[in-house]
Amino acid sequence: MYPFFKHTKGPHFPLSYCSLLLNHCLSQKSLNFVKVVHAHFIKLGLNTYTYLGNRCLNLYSEVGHVNDALKVFDDISHKNSTSWNIFLKGLLKSGQLGKAFHVFDVMPARDVVTWNSMISGYAYFGFLSHALELFVEMQGTGVRPSGFTFSIVMSLVSSPSHAKQIHCRMIRSEMDLDNVVLGNSLITMYGKLGLVEYAFGVIMTMKQFDVISWNSLIWACQRAGHHEQALELFYQMRDADFLPDQFTCSMLMKVSSNLRDLDKGKQVFAFCFKMGFVYNSIVSSAAIDLFSKCNRLEDSVQLFKEQDQWDSALCNSMISGYARHDLGEDALRLFVLTLRKNIRPTKYMVSSLLSSVSIFLPVEVGNQIHSLVPKLGFESDEVIANSLVDMYAKFGFIDDALNIFSEMKIKDLVSWNTMLMGLTYNGRVSYTMDLFRELLTREDMLPDRITLTAVLQACNYGLFVDEGIEIFSLMEIKFGVKPGEEHYECVVAMLSKAGKLKEAIDIIETMPYRSTSGIWKSILSACAVYGDLQIIEGVAEKIIDRETQTSLPYLVLAQTYQMRGRWETMVRMRKAVETKGTKEVIGCSWIGIKNNLYTFESNQLQHYGGKDLYLLLNLLDWEMETEGFV
Fold first, then answer.
1. Percent of the chain, pLDDT > 70?
2. Where do the coiled-coil regions begin and end (predicted)?
3. Which of 57, 354, 363, 405 sits at a 20 to 30 Å CA gap from 9?
4. Widest CA span of the chain, in angstroms?
5. Lowest mean pLDDT: which of 17-21, 353-357, 573-577?
6. Phi and psi of 266, rounded to 5°?
7. How far apart are CA 256 and CA 252, in angstroms?
């Protein structure tokens, strides 16, 4: 028996004493103690009291026992709005969204707390559109949103127009926009959407702001790619006598990483030493990432080894660093150590590991990591799904990539781009075009430059000339994407392969970028088949001007002169190759089988029994031709 109940016989049990007991239960978070107190309330007939019932209801909800909370809720004789709201929160906290919605539906009255609970509940479980619909419905019933309501909704907004509507609604609702918390939420909302000028507009109207306000604005600039402006804000923050915290420092590290500015990064790192932040996990992980991106991996490793305690942020940065430097085995080894230390992997850690698998490690390792995904609860995460699609596509398992893509519940533009690129580089160009047409039917998503690169490359590989020209011509008008060098290269290569050399040369001469030797090489390769001597000589001259050490134009000219019987000129071209000592960089392909890496280079397979493997490759090539993939 607990000492609290030593002298509690009889019906006269002071409510103040009951409140004291419940406060003790709340501080202890002990389920057994809560049940003992509840049992004595039932024995004394106090369980029907609204105030005590609400307190017991809140306690059971806090410790996660919804069934006991339901019994308490049923015993309360006169349920007020607090009773309903506490029970609703308990259901949402335990993950019973369906029951929570039923309770919400039958509630006799709904106040702003009720609506906030349901909106945040829907948001927490990923039903963002339902949460926003509830927000609209709430206003239709005449319930006035609170500051907390707007802070929830601001975290859900995904389009600039909605963000501006929410801001206007706050002004019309006479919200206190001088409130620092609301102001910071507005800055974060606009920063998330890349509307940096609106974020600046908010802070200009705020009468007072704190470190979080500065951090939010610096984050907005960094996220939008305005790195120099983010650094300038840091200087202004210091001039205004605000003391930066670890979040400020981690963002400045990220800014330095994105600028690849090691000197600025070192200055920030020195400031962290001065402030005592250097062994803070957030700051250290940002510093590890900085050194890795600035090609100082040894410094990243040293800093990682100096950490007294590992966590997911530190391990994620180090694994990403190893993967970035093509050290897949080191990344995998650290991942295993992370699991042994009972550190729960993050989705970014798994994504980094999958990217390293697709570079050097064999696909069997990727399969093992894939098997971990459902165990970690990441099967519905779009970041992991995108990495899996990319990995299987790079290994040539395009059907597995397609299956994962089709099962994704949420597909962002990265998902579509990854799948389109995978299909294109695996020769499924017709599928690429079909998937692109499907993407165009979606109203909430527009293609970007990566999407159009994948599609134009598919048009190049499949010689879909008319479609390619149409897409290229409408890029800026229809999709708002200005053609980049990569788009011009795709179109020039496509026209060259189709024998339309004049059109290809016209596009190069009118493009707003300086032409590279690479773009002229695609024309030169086609010239050997379709071009006349004058075009070949002109294109070869342009390549030689841009890349003096390449032997390709001399060899193509020698072959062209030989085909026309101009033997003396042919001999001069071949001697020019020898005299200049030009040497072409030889490409290399590789395949990993178990723990071995086999390379293909300059018609030589680095493996014993290479002749048999080439016979097998010829057979595979023949099968691909019969299936229509080549």
1. 80
2. none
3. 57
4. 122
5. 17-21
6. -65, -35
7. 6
Name 604's bridge partners: 601
pLDDT-derived band at 205 (thresholds 50, 70, 90) equals: confident
Neighbouring residues of 598: CB distance < 8 A, sequence distance ≥ 6: 590, 591, 592, 605, 606, 607
Rounded Cα–Cα distance for residues 623 and 462 (Å): 18
- 293-332 residue pLDDT tens: 999 999 999 999 988 889 888 999 999 999 888 888 898 8
User: How many CA atoms are closer than 13 Å to the CA of 95, on its beta-carbon side?
Assistant: 1
- Is 32 within 8 Å of 1 (Cβ atoms)? no
- Backbone dihedral angles phi then psi of residue 599, each to the nearest 5 degrees: -115, 150
Q: Name which residue leads in pLDDT, 279 or 385.
A: 385
Sign of CA dihedral 265, 266, 268, 272: positive
Residue length, the chain?
630
**H/E segment holding residue 75:** helix 66-75
Burial per residue of 75-103, b for 16 or more beta-carbon CB atoms within 10 angstroms, e otherwise: bbeebeebbbbbbbbbbbbbeebebbbeb
Distance, CA of 187 to CA of 215 (rounded, Å): 10
Q: How many CB atoms lie within 10 A of CB 520?
A: 28
Helix boundaries (H) for 328-481:
328-340, 347-357, 363-376, 382-394, 398-407, 413-425, 429-440, 449-462, 465-479
| 189, two tokens | 């909302």
Terminal CA-CA length for the chain: 82
Report the number of secondary-structure helices (H) and strands (E) in the chain.
Answer: 35, 3
Say if residue 21's pLDDT is above 70: no
DSSP state, residue 357: H
Nearest to 576 by CA among 589, 563, 558, 588: 558
Distance CA 225, CA 222 (A): 5
Q: What are phi and psi of 272, to 5 degrees?
A: -65, -40
Bridging pattern class, strands 604-605 and 596-601:
antiparallel
For 430-444, give the DSSP string.
Answer: HHHHHHHHHHHT-TT
Strands (E), 544-607: 588-593, 596-601, 604-605
For residue 560, how many C-alpha atoms fall within 13 Å in the half-sphere facing its CB?
Answer: 23
Amino acid at 198: Y
How far apart CA 245 and CA 272 sit, in angstroms, is 9
Q: How far is 320 from 72, CA to CA, in rounded Å?
A: 50
**Interaxial angle between packed helices 246-259 and 211-223, expressed in degrees from 0 to 180 and rounded to the nearest 10:** 20
The tokens describing 29, both together, are 């978070």
Q: What residues are paired with 588 via a beta bridge?
A: 601
